[in-house]
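Give me structure tokens for this 82-residue protein.
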Amino acid sequence: MRDRIVEILMKHAGPAARNGKADVSTPLFDGGLEYSSIALLEAVMEIEDACGVRLRDEDLSTEVLSSIGSFVAHIQSRMRAR
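Here you go.
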């Protein structure tokens, strides 16, 4: 499922980020995937459907959204808690 989450994150990345390499330390926003607030919303909705989880506002903290790795880890944690 990790690969599917990363695939969705890359699909919604900003145009400049789509051509580059990304790893777990890549930021979702500035200097990384260059997410806009709309792109984040679209990615979250798609990930919720793909993973069978619902994210609350508190799931989208600055810490969780700091990088690909932190976001993927949080989603996986939520999946285990179901």
